[in-house]
């Protein structure tokens, strides 16, 4: 499959603008409620702002704009997890079912999709001179975004797997 570096997709630009609003709102919430913010979440959201800015204003590599949106498909189960914990439902069947759904959706939406995206980015970098003609801020966005998001997603997935193994083995906190 051939991925083009120059492609203007109004739908990707629209999705990037909506994602930028989401990332701004999340950062504002983290600033107002510091218990929500960690260095990893702040780094994730700052890079998200940068990537969504690039997606909105540079007509290139629309495939990666879509990957960013695909990663967000795991968020409903992640957010529900926090709500269930906060409202005291940690020892319920719903919490366990949500944990399985979260693990599966996170694996598909963040681990598999980003691995495919990384593979394709490396392929584009290796086979297409067009990539090196992109503005520096654009190519920097794709490479550094790929590194940061992959690192964070794989780290968080490992933590989820460890929690799953603890639950299955019967070891409690």
What does this structure look like?
The chain is an all-alpha fold and 173 residues long. The protein has one domain (10-169). The protein is built from six helices and no strands. Helix 1 packs across helix 3 and helix 2 (39-57) crosses helix 6. The relative contact order is 0.13. Residues 1-169 form the TLC domain.
Number of domains: 1
Helical residues, percent: over 70%
User: What class, by secondary structure content?
Assistant: mainly alpha
- Which oligomeric state applies? single chain
| Number of helices, where a helix is a run of at least 4 consecutive DSSP H or I residues | 6
**Basic shape:** globular
H-E order? HHHHHH
Q: What share of residues are in beta strands? A: under 5%
In the predicted model, the low-confidence regions spanning at least 5 consecutive residues are none
Distance between the termini: 47 Å
CA-atom Rg in angstroms: 18 Å
The number of strands is: 0
Mean pLDDT across the residues is 88
Q: Tell me about the biggest sheet?
A: none
Subcellular location: Membrane
Main location: membrane
Pfam family, one: TRAM_LAG1_CLN8
InterPro entries: TLC-dom, TLCD
């Amino acid at each position: 499959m051939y991925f083009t570096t120059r492609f203007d997709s109004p739908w990707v630009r629209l999705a990037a603008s909506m994602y930028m609003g989401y990332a701004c709102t999340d950062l504002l919430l983290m600033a107002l409620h510091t218990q929500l913010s960690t260095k990893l979440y702040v780094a994730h959201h700052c890079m998200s702002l940068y990537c969504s800015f690039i997606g909105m204003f540079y007509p290139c590599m629309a495939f990666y704009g879509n990957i960013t949106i695909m990663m967000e498909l795991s968020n409903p189960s992640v957010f529900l997890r926090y709500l269930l914990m906060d409202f005291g439902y940690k020892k319920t069947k719903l919490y366990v079912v949500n944990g399985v759904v979260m693990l599966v959706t996170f694996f598909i939406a963040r681990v598999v999709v980003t691995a495919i995206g990384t593979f394709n980015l490396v392929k584009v970098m290796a086979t297409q001179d067009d990539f090196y003609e992109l503005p520096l801020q654009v190519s920097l966005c794709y490479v550094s975004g790929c590194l940061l998001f992959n690192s964070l997603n794989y780290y968080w997935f490992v933590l989820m797997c460890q929690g799953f193994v603890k639950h299955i083995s019967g070891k409690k906190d």
